[in-house]
Design brief:
alpha/beta, Rossmann fold, GMP Synthetase, Chain A, domain 3, 9-stranded mixed sheet, 5-stranded parallel sheet, about 25% strand
């Protein structure tokens, strides 16, 4: 039977173990070790309260026993679609302890994406939060279960709300021994992350216990984390950035404290920075101007904040240079991907480096190529596509052999799709994207997916989606449509796309009608020409 994912070659994996990058332990060992070494230290702060390492570890034990009793079995996939709350962390570690495989799903994803992920992963359960009204996540979970025969259980953080739902609190209260995870799992998939992708087909990224554990520990080290560090999780926990760069797992690996921010507003975040003496946090560029504006008028004490990480899309230099004087902390640019490679600007780098580059690779074992369209290496300073392989960069997507052939070289380098140039000192500067997607506020919006939804609307005969520069979002999505009759109002199209299950952040920011779409000589939509139209006639 064909394997669902592509592991590292045996000789490469053996070298990573010999070099000390990989350890023969599972991710839940990070918490176990934390409980053993400093059990009384605060591990987690959330809107629900505070847990020390010993208390968090014990709660995870109880929940793992409850999940096993459902039953959930080692190796089964579980969709975890929760906001930043205590249950996110306890469910994640409980599944890891059980040997099940969490699939980290953004709360903002709509029905179409979640159903596709459930089918692709063969999910056995879906963990959601309780809510109200037509957007209650429990309704989405029920729809997903009806569309995906493998999905047997709906688990709810909060009031279950139906006899067929299981509550996280109720499962944690169930009796029974903690199941022992099967041995020898360090190089098996620990969790599945969602790739932004360049097509409408969702891709799942298998991250192993060995590679993700190394990613967490190495990131914590390069970011200067220690037992006194306090990490504020502002972005959704399902993001790789928030999870491991150094994020939640890196903080636990260092014995620090994770503070979960329930929303990304600077008002909420600043109150937590003051109350918990936060030392490090992470944002996407779209949020940073709001933080800077709020910092100018806040009365909150932000003096504990030492490092502000910014990543997810390129940060413009002018905004980058405002961070130190206006927030009083160091800026660290982070450029990475859920598929693996992380780049960080060094904490001791001069401002000219921090404000104009997106960092250098995390690991000495990261292998980098910058190549032209023929895969030929380009000299330093020349833009090219970034290719990478290393001890925490995947060798293949989950159940996606056909896509793997296009995304990986025969010798195992991952084609990132990012256009970069490398400085003489080895720092990377992001220039753009090779493939057709929009990087909107750190979220990857696949043009073809949105186009397919637009074409399904009554009266739409042709559609093309491109990105346009935006001072706040990095890029905004612009949809060009050819319709029978006048172009419909944007609000009407927005409602129709949401009803189809498209995630709100994928709905076009701007809609423009054309009598026809420009075509290239071989009959494809000429998106270069569409971008030129935008430049000639920008949004009002």
């Amino acid at each position: 039977m064909e394997q669902d994912w592509t592991p590292w070659p045996e000789e490469v994996a053996a070298e990573y173990r010999r070099a000390g990058y990989w350890r023969d332990q599972t991710l839940d060992a990070l918490l176990r070790e934390g409980a053993r070494r400093h059990g009384a230290r605060t591990a987690l702060v959330s809107p629900s309260g505070r847990l020390d390492y010993a208390g968090l570890d014990a709660r995870v034990d109880r929940l793992a026993a409850g999940l096993a009793a459902l039953p959930l079995h080692p190796g089964e996939r579980v969709l975890v679609q929760l906001p930043n709350c205590e249950e996110y962390v306890t469910v994640l570690f409980a599944l890891l302890r059980l040997g099940a495989v969490p699939v980290l799903v953004l709360p903002s994803l709509g029905r179409a994406e979640v159903v596709a992920l459930a089918r692709l992963s063969g999910a056995a359960a879906h963990v959601v939060a309780a809510g109200r009204g037509v957007r209650d996540p429990r309704l989405l979970a029920e729809e997903t279960a009806r569309a995906c025969p493998t999905l047997r259980h709906v688990v709810v953080a909060g009031e279950p709300g139906a006899d067929r739902h299981h509550g996280v609190a109720g499962l944690a209260a169930s009796a029974g021994p903690v199941p022992e995870a099967p041995p020898g799992r360090a190089e098996d998939p620990a969790l599945l992350l969602l790739s932004g992708g360049t097509t409408g087909v969702p891709k799942l990224i298998p991250r192993t216990h060995a590679d993700y554990g190394y990613n967490a520990r190495a990131s914590a080290e390069v970011c200067g984390l220690h037992g006194g560090s306090v990490y504020l999780a502002v972005l959704p926990a399902a993001h790789n950035f928030t999870m491991v760069s150094p994020g939640i797992l890196g903080t636990v690996a260092a014995g620090g404290t994770v503070v979960l921010c329930p929303d990304p507003s600077p008002t909420t975040a600043f109150s937590l920075v003051e109350a918990e003496r936060v030392t490090i946090t992470a944002l996407v560029p779209a949020l940073l101007p709001h933080w800077l504006d709020e910092a100018a008028r806040t009365r909150r004490d932000l003096s504990s904040l030492e490092v502000l990480q910014v990543g997810g899309s390129r940060l413009d230099e002018a905004t980058a240079r405002r961070v130190r004087p206006e927030l009083g902390c160091r800026l660290q640019q982070v450029f990475g991907m859920a598929e693996g490679l992380n780049n960080y600007t060094p904490l001791d780098a001069p401002d000219d480096v921090v404000c104009t580059t997106q960092g250098r690779p995390l690991s000495p074992a990261d292998e980098i190529r910058v190549v032209d369209e023929e895969d030929r290496p380009v000299p330093a300073g020349t833009p090219g596509e970034l290719l990478v392989r290393g001890p925490y960069t995947l060798r293949g997507y989950y159940r996606a052999r056909e896509q793997d052939a296009a995304r990986f070289t025969p010798d195992g380098f991952y084609r990132t799709g990012d256009l970069v140039r490398r400085t003489a000192d080895g720092d990377l500067v992001v220039v753009g994207r090779v493939k057709d997607q929009v990087n909107r506020a750190g979220e990857k919006v696949a043009a073809v997916e949105v186009e397919e939804h637009l074409l399904a609307l009554p009266g739409v005969r042709a559609a093309a989606v491109v990105g346009a520069p935006d001072p706040h979002l990095g890029e905004r999505t612009v949809a060009f449509v050819v319709t029978d009759g006048p172009c419909p109002p944007q609000e009407q199209v927005r409602r129709a796309l949401l009803e189809r299950g498209l995630a709100p952040f994928k709905v076009p920011d701007e809609l423009r009608g054309l009598p026809s779409l420009p075509l290239t000589g071989i009959g494809k939509v000429d998106k270069k020409r569409l971008r030129e139209l935008l430049a000639d006639s920008p949004a009002p």
